[in-house]
Design brief:
Elements (H helix, E strand, L loop, with lengths): L1 E3 L2 E4 L11 E5 H7 L2 H5 L2 E3 L2 E8 L2 E5 L2 E5 L3 E5 L4 E7 L2 E7 L11 H4 L6 E3 L2 H24 L4 H15 L11 H13 L6 H8 L3 H12 L3 H19 L4 H7 L5 H12 L3 H5 L1
Parallel strand pairs: 2-4
Antiparallel strand pairs: 1-2, 3-10, 4-9, 5-8, 5-10, 6-7, 6-9, 8-11
Helix pairs in contact: 4-5, 6-7, 9-11, 10-11
Length: 278
């Protein structure tokens, strides 16, 4: 665990079997072993988190959006997103895993990307199927932890669960465009270095016009709009969850002048950095 201002960052650590890159439990188990601070504070992790709600009502905050949760709600929090753990009377399957643990699966790649969906309402006809997949995964997890057995079946069951999630209606729409995925990856690497769409186009090997067509086809938004939205999201995270000054946040995100950052943030968020922080 690392503290950065008010934002706590957690690395993956399996309490049951060190070096195993997955943990499959229920929400009640997770809550029992965490401190009250950890349950209520906002944090960021370097691993994936899946919550499949089976009963109860509550909510979960991910990147400044409060997501209502009830039976059939599925949440996926990818590494780097900020999270406050689910609250309320929820019962849920919880699967925590490192990016390296699942088998490589083309069908799950859009789901696991930093830009993947956060929330689904699982159709009634799919709930028993996903519940069974999560139970199978938890059963195998307990077997692996208890016996020290090889993890290959556990990896494959993780892949089965991810592929079932990836085909849910909110995540459907056919295979992701690999050209757009390359742009997403480059954006995640470089958003604090450059906000120039031409730089991204050059790095992924397309003209700016072609990159814009790719982005609009995938999201309805231009490359520049997506770049600015990613920078604004990171600014919000830093303003709310660290003690950095507004000028320091801007500097971390590549703004040489505090006034330029303030103008940018106000345009994107509709309020000044100071007002947003309050």
């Amino acid at each position: 665990m690392v503290r950065s201002g008010q934002l706590v960052e957690f690395g993956f650590s399996n309490p049951d079997r060190p070096r195993l890159g997955l943990e499959a439990v229920d929400l009640a188990q997770l809550r029992r072993r965490l401190s009250e601070n950890t349950l209520t504070q906002v944090h960021r992790t370097d691993f994936h988190q899946l919550f499949l709600v089976t009963a109860g009502r509550g909510s979960c905050m991910v990147d400044f959006v409060d997501h209502p949760c009830g039976p059939g709600t599925l949440l996926h929090v990818s590494p780097g997103r900020v999270l406050r753990l689910p609250t309320g009377t929820l019962k849920a399957h919880v699967v925590l895993f490192t990016p390296a643990f699942p088998p490589p699966l083309d069908g799950a790649r859009p789901l696991l990307s930093p830009f993947g969906p956060v929330r689904w309402v699982v159709p009634a006809g799919e709930r028993a199927v996903l519940d069974r997949a999560a139970r199978d995964l938890r059963h195998e997890y307990r077997r692996v932890v208890g016996s020290g057995a090889p993890v290959e079946l556990l990896r494959q069951l993780t892949g089965v669960l991810l592929l079932r999630i990836a085909r849910l209606p909110a995540a459907s729409g056919g295979p992701g465009d690999p050209r757009f995925e390359r742009f997403q990856q480059e954006l995640e690497r470089s958003f604090a270095v450059t906000r120039n769409a031409a730089d991204y186009a050059a790095r992924v090997g397309y003209s700016v016009r072609s990159l814009n067509r790719i982005c609009v086809a995938a999201t309805g938004r231009s490359a520049k709009a997506l770049i600015d939205a990613r920078v604004a999201l990171e600014a919000k995270r830093l303003l709310v969850h660290t003690d950095l000054s507004s000028a320091a946040v801007g500097h971390r995100l590549g703004f040489s002048e505090a006034t330029n950052f303030t103008k940018f943030f106000t345009r994107e968020a509709g309020v000044s950095p100071g007002a947003f922080r309050q």
